[in-house]
Amino acid sequence: MHDPRILEKAMGLYLRTVGIIDPLRMRTWKEAELTVTQLRVLFILREAPGAPAGLLAERLRVTPPTVTGLVDRLVRMGVVRREEDPKDRRLVRNVLTERGQEVLGEVEREGRAFLTKLFERLSAGQLTGLVESLEALVAAADELPTPVEAHSTAS
């Protein structure tokens, strides 16, 4: 069993760490005039090109009508386009436009540039230790159900 004070300190530091890049993300999202959910849609579409509304709704854990509204706005912004599925004309595919890909690229470039500056402030030994600690944290997380799965089984 771990010392409760150490556990509290670890949790507090982890939460501060997760929030380090948030101001940069918020500024980038605001400049792109995107909400967090809209940005999530763009990342999902990059990962799953042509995802229909049902898949987006499932991944975002929202209703299909909510997705329709999100995608409508993204289409008006020119970052997503809708395409008919050539094999099933009832199915509408959502695809990133070139502008959508550029927006995601900019968000990632700014984040990587900031993190590079941050990590360069660490010594080689500190950076190696951080990598080892993060690998251990990810491995421990992989052994647990996701927070969503844990919540749904507890309900």
Whole-number total of structural domains = 1
Classify the secondary structure makeup into a structural class: mainly alpha
Task: Using the 3D structure, state the CATH architecture.
Answer: Orthogonal Bundle
The CATH topology annotation reads as Arc Repressor Mutant, subunit A
Q: Using the coordinates above, name the CATH class.
A: Mainly Alpha
Write down how many β-strands occur, each being a DSSP E stretch of 2 or more residues.
Answer: 2
CATH homologous superfamily annotation: Winged helix-like DNA-binding domain superfamily/Winged helix DNA-binding domain
Secondary-structure element series: HHHHHEEHHH
Q: What summary fits the major beta sheet? A: 2 strands, antiparallel
DSSP strand content: 5-15%
> What low-confidence regions span 5 or more consecutive residues with pLDDT below 50?
none
